Amino acid sequence: MRASTSSPSSRCRRATPLIGLDRVITTPHLGAKRVEADYDVVVCGGGAAGVAAAIGAAKAGAKVCLVEKYGFLGGAVTTSQVYAYCGLYQQGREPVKAVGGVGEEVVTELRAHGLDGEAFRSETTGNWIVLLDGEVLKFALDNLVRRHGIDVKLHTRVAAVARTADRLEAVTLAGMGGRTRVVAEAFVDASGDANLAMLAGIPFRTGDADGKLQALTMPIRVGGIAPDLEIDRKALQAAIARYNLVGDHPIQRTDGGIIIRLPLSHDMWWMTVDVALADLTSESFTAAEMEARARANSYVAMLRREMPGFERAYLVATGPQIGVRETRHPAARYEMTGEDVVTGRLRDDGIARAAWPIELHGEAGKPSYTSIGGAGYCHVPYDSIRAKGLDNLWYGGRVIGADPNAYGSIRVMGTAFATGQAAGVAAADHVDADHRNSVASVRARLIAQNALI
Ligand SMILES: Cc1cc2nc3c(=O)[nH]c(=O)nc-3n(C[C@H](O)[C@H](O)[C@H](O)COP(=O)(O)OP(=O)(O)OC[C@H]3O[C@@H](n4cnc5c(N)ncnc54)[C@H](O)[C@@H]3O)c2cc1C
Fold first, then answer.
1. What are the backbone angles phi and psi of residue 266, rounded to the nearest 5°?
2. Pocket mutation for ligand 1, best pick of 67, 130, 325 (most atoms within 8 Å of C-beta)
3. What is the pLDDT of the chain when averaged over all its residues?
4. Residues lining ligand 1, Cβ inside 6 A
5. Structure confidence at residue 124 (pLDDT)
6. Which of helix, strand or coil describes residue 424?
7. What is the DSSP string of 288-330?
8. Low-confidence residues of the chain, pLDDT below 50?
């Protein structure tokens, strides 16, 4: 770890024979280069959880590598136009903070780049959210990770792992330059889809107890409408009812769906393109992407035809990919339950607060919400972010251990910042043999980093 003079990482490294930093090995018969690199902590995935894990670990003194398959950080915000942070505040009349630490730091950075970052009460759900702009977030996160000295690898995928019975030893990164073997003391899976855990052979559940996956949604941005136009929800509902009589792709969200005017662009952010996902095959994702695009184009044409003020409306953008709510749930040492969430269960081994109500999308277009009891938040226990069967792998974000109901709460990005930061700190702490797996030490470091527990 960079912070101390006698490096704990060098004291406790005990895995594969040590290799030098960024040693280039040429494989003569292939004419290709294989680079080997050495870190304290490797984080897979650059969404809310991954960024928070990387920053949390770096602040704890670790040398960190953050790996992201797209060309930018931000996760669902920048990959799927999910333009609101949920879970940063508790439900209620006033916005009470549930997340501090890196989540708060990101919002402060957004403010420095032109977003107001204020808590906004959603008209449809009554929850507090922070509205986003994808380009501002990309740039803000670039600045933050640079400032924290994190080695970021974009356009790079975690593609394979090497492990022993109880430890991950290394990951193979696949990028444009070829394959890189990266050795580390500790790892964080913040991939959303449990890609690292899956590669490591950790068993997983797909979807809910019956294998049913939550619906996909393609959030879209609609432009060409006056910035001050009040969108008339009743008129929209009537337009949807007419469309559903004859339209090619009936709209399940007959209430009009989630509609928000975005900051800066004043585009209409519309979440109403829902598609069921049968399984995780490439065929199902291809069909879903194409079906969602057909729906998006058809719905915007409907707006142009049917809604006053939308005569010049057009589809500004869909995201680089459709929004994916749920895929794999890798085995954790503790699986949070819906009961933990609705009763607002607090625990001595809590490492983060979950404050978003249980939001389920079992049926496309018909979300349901159940509020959190107790103090308005529940604790995420330490064992929910620890992989079952591997001693040096932690989970952050939507891959943490949660049953189908708890998952409806913990998956939001505000909570992902909190669980990601905890995973990064725990991973960094693990590098120090004196602290290994001490919840008290992880909690103390999180509090020192201004996290709310
Ligand atoms: C339609 C929709 C609407 C939603 N609405 C909201 C909302 O309004 N507010 C809210 O807070 N939450 C919302 N959610 C939930 C939320 O977006 C996700 O649960 C959240 O993004 C989880 O954060 P994460 O960091 O765990 O994962 P992600 O944001 O999914 O980030 C994971 C990252 O890992 C990368 N990755 C994956 N595999 C690899 C690999 N092998 N190598 C390298 N990189 C990899 C991905 O490219 C991605 O950038 C919504 C989700 C959907 C789908």
1. 60, 15
2. 325
3. 91
4. 44-50, 67-70, 75-76, 79-80, 82, 84-87, 157-158, 190-193, 195, 217, 219, 323-325, 397-398, 411-414, 416
5. 64
6. helix
7. HHHHHHHHHHHHHHHHHHHSTT-TT-EEEE--SS-B----EEE
8. 2-33
**243/251 Cα distance (integer angstroms):** 8
Burial of 61 (0-12, 13-18, 19+ CB in 10 A): buried
CA 375 to chain centre: 25
Where in the sequence of the chain do the CATH 3.50.50.60 domains occur?
8-117+130-210+326-448
- What are the backbone dihedrals phi and psi of residue 149, each rounded to the nearest 5 degrees, phi first? 70, 30
* CATH architecture of residue range(s) 8-117+130-210+326-448: 3-Layer(bba) Sandwich (3.50)
Decide: 38 and 19 in contact? Cβ < 8 Å.
yes
Query: Cα 108 from chain centroid?
Result: 19
CA 253 vs CA 122, 218, 270, 290: distances in Å: 17, 13, 11, 19
